[in-house]
Request: fold
Amino acid sequence: MSKKYEHCIVSKPKIIDEFEAHVPGKYQIMMDSQLVPEADFFVAGGIHHKIYQAEPISYKHSHDESEVYLYISKKGDAEVEVELEDETYRLTTPCAVYVPKGVKHTYRYIRIDGPLTVVAIVRNGEYHTHK
Reply:
């Protein structure tokens, strides 16, 4: 007998090779409306190790919904450069960034010295961007 909320549990994230507005790579989708039909937000994330990234991970884009980025690591283990419209911020982990709907944004990793967990949450069950 199935349980009432069993469909709300995602035990196998969706792995994709192409992610709208992002450079090619493996992306782990933890929650969206394909995995859980009534989900009204999109969550992607992963763990990164020892990296330097010369170019941003995506081209500057915006969403019709707000977005949050969580950069989680031991204090000072990573630096991230975030662009919000024409403003650039250099952040040291742990930190979080709120991106209001319609704000063009991108980010790149300056330095990762230890494991860095990155979680992106968009307030919609599907991921859509605008250039």
Observations:
- The chain has a mean pLDDT of 91.
- The chain has one domain: 13-122.
